[in-house]
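re the bet — no i am not wrong, look at it urself. input seq straight from the record:
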Amino acid sequence: MFKEQGGSMSTDWDKYSSPEVTRGRAKSPIDNGILVLEVGGIRGVEDLEVDHVPLLQNQAHSQVTGIEKGDDPRARKVRKDRIRVKLFQLFRDLLINPGDPL
């Protein structure tokens, strides 16, 4: 949960997508859940940034960057763990649980 892949954590802006459509875009939808985070809360966590970066096939695509900052592997792991805890505390609603039927 809350992991960068390819330099960012991919998200969808709910203005342009539904939870079901967002989940359906995952490589393995059944293994993914959908939760709600407020952008302002994310931006308040250790210099994380959120940007709307629409893709041709996904107008809702946004990304969170800054989770994996730092050169020292040990310090970077501590930072990532701390950020994940803060993001977990911020999430508002779990809309779809991993494992829920498609």
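see?? The chain has one domain: 9-95. told u. also The helical segments are 19-24, 39-43, 73-90. so pay up
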